Amino acid sequence: VATEGIVQNLTLAGDVTYDLTGITATTNAAPFIYRSWGVINDCSSSVNVIVTSSETIGQEVRLSGFMAYMTNGECNGCSYDGAFVWEDSSSSSARAYVGGVIGYVNSSDAKVNGCYLGGTVNLKATVTGERSWFGGVVGYPLVPVSNCYTTKDAKVNVSNATKLRLGGVVGQANSTVTGCVNNAAITIDCPSTDEDTHTYVGGVVGRNAGKVSESDNTGTITVTTGCLTQRIGGIVGQNYDSEIEDCENSGGIICNDVVVKKVRYYGGIVGYSTGTVSSCTNTATVNKEKMSSV
To answer: Is the backbone of residue 22 left (phi > 0), alpha (psi -120 to 50) or beta?
Structure first.
């Protein structure tokens, strides 16, 4: 979609498979729009997406069930209701940006508002790149994200990925995340024993490098195998010199005994914080024990 282009009130359904075998450059793959500079209003995709590769992917990828890459413009009221699967037969050693609605937004002048995930997003591939970002709605936005959410029927599942920033709504917040809600169940299996895995999981945001406010999580986070340096929070996994304000978590965090011994930081609001947390409430059970607000 070009800079002055407007796309609105469209729906897309069907099935598509992206075979990324042999890619030699950064790749954007999504069924509705692969890249946009324009304005997208009230559009939806229920396309079932399969991503596969017969060899290790060595190039950066941006993947989504709706739009892969947003450079400028706006995305308002758009949704993904299909089933997205990055197959377990695939592997990647490069950066990956994956989102139910948008994979990557790289301009601070853009805007994402009122978008939601109603389907499922499954990252089964072995992803071991330097860093990867995975969000139920947006993987990696450099822009404000507001009033976005996942439905209670949505699901966000990850297995075999390390060095991941995983959020029910946003993988990593680099600006503001305001008025967002995660209702989706999140399941993560991170089998790595590498001390440098640094996987962050949050009900709303995986890693916060901006400000998260007036946002809630009701979805349960289940960790079946924990990385050695995993940080898990009901709202934010890691809060890096940033702010969390006026948020509420009522979604439980479930870790088995083996995971508890490996996961170093977890909490009802934030797993690990070097920033500020204020006016937040946790009413959920975290690993069978009610924890404090942080």
So the answer is: left
pLDDT at 63 over 60: yes
pLDDT tens-digit series, residues 184-204: 999 988 766 666 667 899 999
Between strands 285-286 and 289-290, the pairing is antiparallel
pTM of the model: 0.95
Q: How far is CA 292 from CA 24, 63, 71, 205, 286, in A?
A: 48, 36, 40, 19, 10
Q: Beta-strand (E) ranges in 20-101?
A: 27-29, 33-36, 39-41, 44-45, 48-52, 61-64, 67-70, 74-76, 79-80, 83-86, 91-92, 96-99
Q: How far is CA 141 from the centre of its chain?
A: 10
Burial (CB count within 10 angstroms: exposed 0-12, middle 13-18, buried 19+), residue 35: middle
